[in-house]
Amino acid sequence: MSCKHVETMSDNIWLCFCQNLTCVPSMVFPLQLISDGSVVYAEALWDHVTMDDQELGFKAGDVIEVVDATNKEWWWGRIMDSEGWFPASFVRLRVNQDEPMEEYLAHLEEAQAGEEGRAGLGLLLGPGLPCKEQMRTNVINEIMSTERDYIKHLKDICEGYIKQCRKRTDMFTEEQLRTIFGNIEEIYRFQRKFLKGLEKKFNKEQPHLSEIGCCFLEHQTDFQIYSEYCNNHPNACVQLSKLMKVNKYVFFFEACRLLQKMIDISLDGFLLTPVQKICKYPLQLAELLKYTNPQHRDYKDVEAALNAMKNVARLINERKRRLENIDKIAQWQSSIEDWEGEDVLSRSSELIFSGELTKLSQPQAKSQQRMFFLFDHQMVYCKKDLLRRDMLYYKGRMDMDHMEMIDVEDGKEKDFNVNVKNALKLRSLTGDKVHLLCAKKPEQKQRWLRAFADERRQVQHDRETGFSLTEVQKKQAMLNACKSHPAGKPKAVTRPYYDFLLRQKHPSLPTALPQQQVFMLAEPKRKASTFWHNIGRLAPFKK
Fold first, then answer.
1. Which of the chain's ends, N or C, has fewer CB atoms near its CB within 10 Å?
2. 434 forms bridges with which residues in the sheet?
3. What share of the chain in percent tops pLDDT 90?
């Protein structure tokens, strides 16, 4: 990767540093200072957003104290009280490390102000182009270059690996190949179409005049196919790990790589690229917007494209979280005694809220204490065991798609002819069923009112985005739940993909290439919890 920020400040405060280390004489500079006990500072070139508690998040412009630089790609650093790993390619080192921090910060502010002033006066960088236009040219060229490289990468995987694997029916089933490679062939077909669109909008003579924002807007819905790939990636790693324990598969995959003349990276490394690629688009568009004048014809489209690709990343993140939750929902159901009717996953995929309420239903109007679990599309209610309070018995469910929620004032309730406090009513749209639910405290009632509103919003959002579970996903989740523990005896979930993280007692070096993260493929270590705490994690109270 070539260094994007080749410009240096006039006062020579910062030294540009990039991933392949071509911008500094050697790694000795930071290592020597650290080993000598000196404090080494670096400035963040780009935002590093992370959800991993072992990585250090920061904003562009933040000053980072470099604690460990022994690895060329990932350094260990500190900002205030926070420490963690960060990509070396996201920072540039300070040259004059001996200057007092206060003087340095003042110096930096002056230098940045000076740069802005010179840019405003039309400082030239390159033959005949103003600074901002030259930088836009660089970003456009990088987008086009990385897109072409990515297409070749996808082609190598599809033709070098998948095509060869399909010839060996004695070694691979179609189901195995689908697990390992996911929908990467679909991604390859889409990316070729996307690249064609970019090529049409690319101005070869004057790249800074290219108008590529519309290409991202046109295909923003198509990018959602990455959701399936990212969600499947943990399963691909597990399946591939099993196969690589057998020598014949190790030799076969290496033969595929050599036959296709691919670089010396293992298959799991190649398969990580689509995950990294969908994370990189918002970064590239943010950089493009930064160097696009508001008067440029492409400005509004680039701005809209950036927001669109951020939304794609958020959607992928949300779908990944939802799919991880279905295993927990399946296990919750398997812990309920006397379950009746269809599985909760047949219609639902999200637990919105849960809690204890007093229930009255017509025609008996008998008061009953029940535990209620509000999912999207339905609400399940259960009875607690008198002796074992952590054991629940299934008692029924309500179809939320055919119910309306009514806020009930304190006092006499006309349908049930009883005095109530902190009550709300669920009535079927046909009017033949009415349920009166009473909370113990006013604030609990308000939480439930918000929860019912959240449930309707969730259902509407899923309709708009087209989110749904496949029959295979539902069946697999229920099958995993049945295997993991017998009914009524909940146990912790174990997932081989996360085992290596759970075994870590000390900070471990990130295995991914330095890349800004939009979502995580590994969840942090969690302490063992009781049944009720599991339910609490599944449906955190919404304030």
1. C
2. 427
3. 45
> Reduced to 3 states, what is the DSSP secondary structure of residue 55?
strand
User: What is residue 217's three-state secondary structure?
Assistant: helix
CATH 2.30.40.10 fits 14-120, yes or no: no
Beta-bridge partner residues of 241: none
3-class SS of residue 271: helix
Average pLDDT in the chain: 78
Q: How far, in Å, CA of 82 to CA of 64, rounded?
A: 10
pLDDT-derived band at 14 (thresholds 50, 70, 90) equals: very low
User: Any idea where the domains of the chain sit in the sequence?
Assistant: 14-120, 131-327, 344-492
Q: Is 380 helix (H, G, I), strand (E, B) or coil?
A: strand
Distance CA 179, CA 235 (A): 7
Which range is least confidently modeled, 70-79, 273-282, 514-523? 514-523
User: Which overall architecture, per CATH, does domain 344-492 show?
Assistant: Roll (2.30)
Would you say domain 131-327 falls under CATH 1.20.900.10? yes
493-515 pLDDT, tens per residue? 333 333 333 333 345 555 554 44
Q: How many CA atoms lie within 13 A of 523 on its CB side?
A: 13
> First vs last Cα of the chain: how many Å apart?
45
Do residues 326 and 240 make contact, with C-beta atoms less than 8 angstroms apart?
no
Tell me which residue has tokens 């049930």.
416
Q: H or E segment at 187? A: helix 184-201
